[in-house]
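Write out the 3D structure for:
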Amino acid sequence: MSRTNARKSAFYLVFQHDFVGNEGLGEAKDIFYAENDDLDENDKSFIDSAVKGTIDNLEEIDSIISSVSKGWSIERMAKVDLAILRLAVYELKFGKATPKKVVINEAVELAKKYSSDNAPSFINGVLGKIAGGDE
């Protein structure tokens, strides 16, 4: 599986977290892995690390998103957009392994596929401000 698809899988699980919380995430992950038996150990390691890192740093990640998304509170954002942003901010701020441009591009591609017509530009703008702030 490509890193892009592994990132998409991590997005699914971060999105699930909003609905099942920490208590249900383990079961959601087990079901996801059972339904996606083509994942190798490297894929699972990336997914587990990205999901855990995102959730473990959720308060700080949401604070970072809030600080640059003027006029849009976390509560107002579409759940899909928020999950994409959270995962991307985790990778930008805590992951450090993937180039910023790649993280932003893949977040925008996820938004094009799974969200509204306006989401890609919104996500690009938010992530651009965040990535630009630490260069």
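The chain has one domain: 3-132.
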